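Dear colleagues,

As part of the handover before I leave the project, I'm documenting each prediction I ran so the next person doesn't have to rerun anything. This entry is a single chain, and its sequence is reproduced below.
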Amino acid sequence: MTEEWKEPYIEQHEAEDALYTRLHRQTREEIQRLSGKVWTDYNAHDPGVTLADVADYALTELDYKLGFPLADYLTEENGTLDLRRSGLFPPEEVYTTHPVTEEDYRRLFLASIPRLAGVTVTADRETGGYTVRILPSPFEEEGERKALEEQVRKVFHSHRNLCEYLEKVETASLKELEFRADLEIEAGEDADDVLARLYMEILEYLYRFPVFSTPDKEGEETPPSEWLEGQTGTVRVAFPEQQDTEHELYGRLCRVKGVRSFKTCYLTLDGKPQNDFSGGFGLHIPEEEPDLEYNPYKEKKDKELKVHIRQGKQNVQVDTGRFRTRLETLYRIREHRLEHKVNNSAKAAGWTQPAGTYQDVYSHYPIANDFPACYLLSKDGKAATPFEAYLKLYDRVIEGGLRELKELPQVLSLSDEDAGNLSDRRTRELKRQYLDLLDRLYGVDSNPAWLAEHNRYGETEEGTLRRRMRFLRNVPVLLRDRNKARDITDTDSLTGNDTPTVKRWFCLLLGITPDDGRAVSNVLSAHNLLITEKRDGRPFRDIDSLLIHERMLEADNVEKVDYMELASDEKEKQREYGRMWHELHLLNENRISGDLFRGGTDLDNYRVVRCGREEYLLAYHNREHPGWTNLGRSADKERLKILANILRRFLRELNRACETLYIVEPVLADRSRPFQVFAVLPAWTARFHSPRFREECRRLLRSLLPAHIGGTVYWLGERDMRMFERCYRQWIYSLTDARIGEYRKLLLDAMLEAMETAVEKQDLDDTY
C-alpha cells in the first residue's frame, strides 16, 4: 500500500528566497556600490549594518501589511463589505437588460405574476401599441381575473419603453377539451389523488407551463454574463419543446404516479377526439360525480366527470369535490413554488461573491524603538538626537504609505459622504484615475471633452469629480433601462425618480437635477425677476442702465475684479445675497437682461470704473451686444468687487437651476404620431444659449435614443417655457387619471402651440 504524505499546514520557503534575506543582501550590495566597495571590514554590530537590519525588517513588515486582497482593505471594521460604494455592482445589476421584444415582455409577465397560466403579447409595429391576452388559472374567480389584468398593466407600465403604450389587456377565452378515459390505478392509490395528478399533467401540457430556472445550481458553472444575457432578472423563463400531439401527451399520462394502464384515453372537443393541440386549448374540469356503473355509450351531462377508474376488478367512485380540491391544491403549490423561486432568485445566485476581512494594519511602530539600548536613543519625550531625526524620515515614508492605504476606501468611493478629501490634489488625481477606469469598465464617458469646453459655471476639479461620481452611481440603471419611459400609472411620477432614462442620463451627465418636480420657469419668478432680451426695434437703453463710452471707461479708470472667497455657510450666503439686493439697485427693477444673466456668470466681464474723485461704478461689459451696463455705485471700490463676486455666484446658481430637459411622447395622446419624441429645453441659460453647446446636446440625445425613434429638439424662451410647463404638468396627470384623460389631446396641442415659437428647433433624426 502506497503511503500518503500530507502537506504541512504552513508552506516552507527556502531561507534564501525569504523577502528579508533578499532585502538584506540587496542593501549590503547597494551600500558597497555607493561606497566604492571600500567598506569591507564591517561587523554585524556596526551602526550602518544595524540600521540596514532594522529598515529591512520594517520593509518586510510593510510588505506583509500590503499583501492582503483588495477586498480586505475595502472592508469596514464591523466586517461590512459594500462594493456598490466603490462602483463595483453585482452581476444581476450589470448584465440584465430591459424588455424589448414581445417575447421579452411575455417572459417578464410570467416571471412577475406567477398566478398567470399563460400570456400572449402582440405589438403593433406601426404604432407601438401592445395587446396583452392573459390566461388565468381555471380556479380564478371573475374578480381575481380583473386583479390579474390590473397587475399586468402595472408591470407593463413600470417597464414600458419610449413611444410604446398598452392598447388593451384582455382575458383569453380558450375552447375547453374534455378528458375521457377508462383506466386502472395501482393498488393502494387514492383515486382522487391520481385523477388530480392526471388533470394537472394535462393542464401543464395544454398551457405549456414555462420552466423557471435560477442560478443557484446551474449558475455555479455558468458565468453571470452568459446566464443573464438578454434577461430582465436572474430568473430564466424557458418554454418546453413539445409536439402538441395526442401521442406525446398519452406517453406523459402513462408515467403519472399511480396509473397502471389505460383502456381508453383521449381529449374531445364537442364530442370529437382531438390529436393536435397546437391551436391552444383549455381543459374542462368536471363538477359532478359520474355513475358508478361505467357505460361509454350513455350520454352524460356537460359538467359530469367522464373518467372511469378501476382498481383491480373493482370500480372506484371519485369524490368530485375532493378531486377538485386536490387539483387546486396541486396548482396553488406550483404557483407558490414559482413565486418563492422568483422572490429569492437573487439570494440564491450561485456566483461567488467577493468577501473581505478587516485587517488592522494601519499603525506603525517607530523603527527607532527596534535599536539596541546601547544606542542611547532618547526616551520619555526628551529632545531627539540627529540620528533619531534621520530615522524619522523612514517612519514618515512608511506612515505615509499606510495612511494612503487606509484612505483607499474613500479614494474608491462614489459616495458624496465619504469621498475623501477632494481638496487634496493627490486625492483628486487618484479619484480621477479611478473614475476613468470605471468609465472604461462600463463603456460610458462620464466627462466628455465638450462639457469641459463649455464650463460656464466655474465647475472646479472637485465639482467635476462629484458630478462624475453621481453619474457612475447610477450607471447600472442607466445602461439596463436605457430605453425606459415614464411610468404613466405612477401618481407621484413628477416628484419621484420615475423619469425617462434618456432624461436621467442627460441630466446626470450635465449636473442637472433630473426630476420633473420643479418648474424652471418659476426660478426667476421666485426672485421677482424677468429676463428681457434685446429685439429689433426695441431700444436697449430703455431696459438697461447702458453707459455711454466716455473717458471714464478708458483703461486708466477701469479695474478688473479678482476672485474672492465667499461664505460657504448657507445661512451666511443668503445674508450676502440680501445685502447684494439692497446695494445693487439694478436688481430692484425686477428685470435683468439676458446678456447680464448669462455673461454675469463670468468674473472677467465685471469692471470697477472710477467716475469721480471718490466715486466708483460696478460695470458689466455686455458680451452679446456692444456697451457697458452700470450695476451699482459706491465710494468703496473693494465693496463693489465683493458685490461682483456675490452677483457672479448668484447668477451661476440661477443658471443651473433654470436648466432641465422634458421628454414628451406624443403617441400617448395622439396615435398618429408614433415613434416620435419632443425634447424641450430652456434657451436662456449661459450654456443652453450657445449654438455649439446646443448642437452637442442634440448629438447626445440622438445617441441615447433608440434608432427607430425620431423627433425634434425645442429650445424655448422663458415665456414659452412657462406656458409649456403649465400644460405639461396637467398632461402628465391626464395620463395617470382617467377622469381627465379626455383632455390629453387638448393639452398636447397646447404644448405644441408653445413649442411652435421656439428660439431654435433641431431635428433628432439620425443624419450625422
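The mean pLDDT is 86. Residues 524-657 form one domain.

All the best with the project,
I.
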